[in-house]
Specification:
This protein has 91 residues and is of the alpha+beta class. It has four helices and two strands; from the N terminus they run H-H-H-E-E-H.
């Protein structure tokens, strides 16, 4: 299974919305890989997924809270602001 074109941002933001605690990009990548059965056993595959997630998080920064802890950045959904930043699904 894979994420349909145009749905990656929604998958990332939905993962954060469901999380009970703040998550790093790598935490989000592991959850998405599990949810969508994406093969990331190779380090390079995981690193590509993490990079894409970081890019997505940065582009939706206004709808998210982030905090730097050491070398990691923790991300958290800010309730309804995520819904407002997403376009509705089409057909």
């Amino acid at each position: 299974m894979h994420i349909r074109r145009g749905q990656f941002s929604r998958a990332v933001l939905d993962t954060l919305r469901r999380a009970s605690d703040a998550m790093t990009a790598r935490d989000i990548a592991m959850q998405i890989a599990s949810d969508y059965r994406i093969e990331v056993t190779a380090t390079a595959a995981m690193n590509r997924l993490v990079a894409k997630i970081r890019q997505t998080l940065t582009s939706h920064r206004g709808a998210l809270a982030s905090e730097k802890r050491g070398d990691a950045v923790l991300w958290l959904a800010e309730d309804d602001s995520i819904s407002a930043s997403l376009r509705p699904l089409e057909g």
